[in-house]
Design brief:
single chain; Helicase, Ruva Protein, domain 3; Dna Topoisomerase Vi A Subunit, Chain: A, domain 2; 2 domains; two-stranded antiparallel ribbon; about 40% helix; elongated
Length: about 200
Amino acid sequence: MQYPSKLIEDAVTEISKLPGIGKKTALRLALHLLKEKPQKTIDLAQALSDLREKTEYCPTCHMIFDGDDCMCQSHRKDRTIICVVEDTPDVLAIENTAQYQGVYHVLGGIISPVDGIGPGDLNIESLINRVKADGEVKEVILALSPTMEGDTTTFYITKRLKDLNVKVSTIARGVPIGGELEYTDEITLGRSIANRVSYEV
């Protein structure tokens, strides 16, 4: 693809590194920013800079937050139930169903030997410690994508929780096998949470 200037080419190269954005879309976005008032581009750059510099991760549940109390500290949340998810978009997807009132635990990924990701690379140990230290936890819901890697992670965590006197369940398989939780429609995901089933090793 030919570009009218090196500056446009550099902008397109960087923008197209974002997921789901190809070169054509990146070019459209870059040209759009050029047409807008300079302040809009400055505001966008500042928001992205703040995102990188000011975003924090909750030491308890590993959810993204910006320095205020994390949602896991909310008095509206039921701390006796922990829903374990792969990453932040899964939390948002479940929250949008309005079917779940408990707290979350973000693993930061799933076990994937092919990609060199083992249990030690994820926030699994902090989940185990959280359940051990917090005597009020009664149930752990494993809401991981129903892929081979997701099932491997579910199996591993279930074995680790086996002797901790806590109910372990998974979301019902209304979510399509091989699908990603983040892209599941809210009705299907809501029913999966509401109709979760016990997970046996």
